[in-house]
Amino acid sequence: MVEIRLTNSRTRRKEVFTPIDASDVRMYVCGPTVYDRAHLGNARPVVVFDMLFRLLRHVYGPDHVRYVRNFTDVDDKINAAAQARKAAGAGGSLEELIRARTEETIGWYHADMAALGALPPTAEPRATDFIGQMIAMIGILIERGHAYAAEGHVLFRVRSYRDYGALSGRSVDDMIAGARVEVAPFKEDPMDFVLWKPSDASLPGWDSPWGRGRPGWHIECSAMSHELLGDSFDIHGGGIDLQFPHHENEIAQSCCAHPEGGFARVWMHNEMLLVEGKKMSKSLGNFFTVRDLLDRGVPGEVIRFVFLSTHYGKPMDWTEKKQLEASKAIRKMAGMLGMRGTEFLTGLEEGKPLNSVVDALADDMNTHGALHALDRSTLQLAYRELDLIDIIPDIYASQRLLGFDLKGHPEAWARAIQHDETMGIVRSRAPSTKPELLVDLEVRMVQLRAEATSSKNFSAVDALKAALTAAGVEVRMSKAGVELLPGPGFDPSKLEALK
RNA sequence: GGCGGGUUGGCGGAGAGGUUACGCAGCGGAUUGCAAAUCCGUGAAGACCGGUUCGAUUCCGGUACCCGCCUCCA
Fold it and tell me: Is the peptide bond before A245 cis (omega within 30 degrees of 0)?
């Protein structure tokens, strides 16, 4: 069994991971509030914990890992968006407008995250489906003296939980001293946080012992993780920005409501995403969504590669340059799959992931190390050229473990065809994800080139080549033929004129 | 103000107390109608100041600078 080591935010140390039950490894990750398209920052924890999910599945077996990631579909931003739509004359009740918006957002989220190669979690609970459990948990907290009702609100009594602040290394007194927020008059203590708040008629609400209202933000994760994963589970993940107050509050709620359980044993936090060295924000104009990138022609696997090239515990800077480097690296990775020709590539099946890759991942998810282990130059040092060809199925399996499936990548086929040509094998046009238009243009280019070779006038060939290059197409000409590949800046619209 | 993280070659970015990380870019070569891609080769580092050590970029302390969190946020 591979020994996995993970940095536990709670102890601030790298520890050997031992699941509570190896036949049922359980992980909970805080998911998105579904009011709008996921921005690039939202995608980082998705890829990070997808990688952990894949590693756990590899080590413990796909049927022995449960990964829960919630959807927060009750939230004031969602309410505000729905109220704005209603004010703008949209039909339907507020509840219907909210439901429509959250449904739509969840659909986008699924599509965008799938494009990044993220597996669907085992369960994706929606907060609104667990209001009953939240009310029950709040009831227990009041019973045990950890919460109190005041003016239609229910508040958690922070002073009743000794370890409050332990996760994020803060003391309640320090925080009060440095507090910048206005304190609601009905709070016993400035740090007490809301479990339940009242809703007026213009807001969605549920009946509760404390009147019609809606849950505070933190209680949903406590209620859902308890309902789906139990009193104690293995890993709780999320962005470092959630460490305080969200995760601190979750721990307080869960541990006070279910003191018999240990709640999450390992806490993992991914660091933030920056864009060109700055935090992504609308005011700086460097804010963009995953969909924006995909629509701009940046493939999902390139985004994934950039994410995986930085350790999850370090801030990751998204830059144009990294994006270009990643697309080159992806091409090289894909190219290796074609080293043995088209016939082999067509029938390529997954072998067993390389130990060097698994070991890197098992070492606190050193994804950069895993990618490095898959570099051709690294592999060439570890294996002789002939052996390298033998382990293509293992290389493929390793890539798949990292969430990349490059079997259909144009570069894999280009390499395979090149191999066939060198070996004198008749080329067979195999399925790749290359756009049809490029295949047609290849044929035309071959004809023009044949004419040019006899006439010694290459101007027509050069003109076509220039147009293709301008559209971001990579033009490769060899004695045997022409290969057109979409490059990093490929823009299909610029090819329309060449039809 | 409190808490946390960082500072490595032109750029990105690792591991390891003493041996070349690696990639990209650059440069030289092979190849090409010209290119592209590919292949071969190649130079370049460890913020600053102290300490521990036979030896530190790697451990310890301090300084400077950068970033994040403390308020919705992944």
Answer: yes
